Automatic annotation (TrEMBL):
The organism of origin for this protein: Gemmobacter denitrificans
Pfam assignment, any one: Exo_endo_phos
Record domain Endonuclease/exonuclease/phosphatase: where: 26-306
Protein's name according to its UniProt entry: Endonuclease/exonuclease/phosphatase family protein
Keyword presence, Nuclease: yes
Organism ancestry: Bacteria, Pseudomonadati, Pseudomonadota, Alphaproteobacteria, Rhodobacterales
Highest taxon, organism lineage: Bacteria
PANTHER family xrefs: PROTEIN CBG08683, PTHR41349
GO MF annotation, one: endonuclease activity
Assigned keywords, A-Z: Endonuclease, Hydrolase, Nuclease, Signal
InterPro entries named in the record: Endo/exonu/phosph_ase_sf, Endo/exonuclease/phosphatase
């Protein structure tokens, strides 16, 4: 008995500790991958390469219909994701399910993609022998609470004034999709790391703070419920983990195609990379966009009506 136990102890001591795995995970609303402006995928591919990403959650891989209205804008035409993945020499999974958490989504990865979750929101990825799950979502943008608070017409939604009203409308608008996500994430319980990427069409309470209101960035303080729901489950908002001050780094991802002083839109951070895992650390995070003050990684020409987010983590 003692001899057997001693042998096991020696084997345990002799086994090398697992090295950290480093990943760069990107969320990128590609606005049709160029087709909305009658372009190819080349600019989108260049942006992904510039970000140094290993895995990307893509949203809006298909074209917008014409007209694209607040309450009706189904995707049209083929997905650009397979061609983007092929240009990078990567793997691809087009998320083809039709539900409230998807709008022409796809996951592309330099690492092999395996199992798919029940509602098609997530994929298992083999990263150097470690199991990682990435869930990639696109939330509904109507009603859009920043517009409701600012009196900007967008669909039939009424205007509102308070934090409580904004939270209520946000929960009703995106709550059902978050239930689908919660169900799918049960598949990832034994993963080394879990990521959630997406165009949330809802800001973060880390941005709509009293300090940001005083600085004139947002109209009222709001602790937005969708981001909070993920954080309550242990996920880290990677960008704010590295850049915690929303006044110094507003990190607007919506939209590089609009004047920030315009009264019929509102600049905001609605694109995210969330991460969770035992021992996971966020090493870096950046906004990827056009040559301008809002981008940490600058790429020209910039192909989308969103800036992207990339985060580097170790686990």
């Amino acid at each position: 008995m003692h001899r057997y136990g001693w042998t096991l102890a020696l084997l345990t001591l002799a086994s090398p500790a697992l090295a950290d795995t480093t990943l760069r995970v990107m969320s990128f609303n590609i606005w049709g991958g160029g087709v909305n402006e009658s372009k190819g995928i080349e600019e989108t591919v260049a942006a992904i390469r510039a970000a140094g990403a290993d895995i990307v959650g893509l949203q809006e891989t298909r074209a917008e219909t014409d007209p694209c209205e607040a309450d009706s804008c189904p995707p049209a035409g083929p997905s650009a994701a397979p061609a983007i993945a092929a240009a990078l020499g990567w793997h691809v999974h087009d998320q083809v399910a039709q539900n409230g958490a998807l709008w022409a989504n796809a996951v592309i990865s330099r690492h092999p993609i395996g199992a798919v979750s029940a509602n098609d929101l997530g994929v298992e990825i083999d990263v150097e022998g470690r199991k990682v799950w990435l869930f990639n979502i696109h939330h509904d943008d109507e009603p859009y609470q920043p517009y409701q608070l600012l009196g900007i017409e967008y669909g039939p939604a009424p205007f509102i004034k308070t934090e409580a009203e904004a939270q209520d409308y946000a929960s009703r608008t995106r709550g059902p999709a978050m239930e689908l996500l919660a169900a799918d994430m049960a598949a990832a319980q034994d993963a080394a790391a879990i990521f959630v990427t997406g165009d949330f069409n809802e800001p973060s309470g880390h941005d709509w703070t009293e300090a940001a209101v005083t600085a004139g960035l947002h109209p009222v303080k709001v602790d937005w419920p969708t981001v909070k729901r993920l954080e309550d489950q242990g996920f880290v908002d990677t960008y704010r983990g590295v850049h915690p001050d929303p006044v110094a780094k507003p990190a607007f991802t919506w939209t590089p195609r609009y004047d920030e002083t315009a009264t019929d839109d509102h600049p905001d951070r609605i694109d995210f990379v969330f991460a969770k895992g035992t021992g996971l650390q966020v090493k870096d995070a950046a906004i990827v966009g056009e040559d301008g003050p809002r981008s940490d990684i600058k790429v020209m020409p910039w192909p989308s009506d969103h800036r992207a987010v990339v985060a580097e983590v170790t686990f």
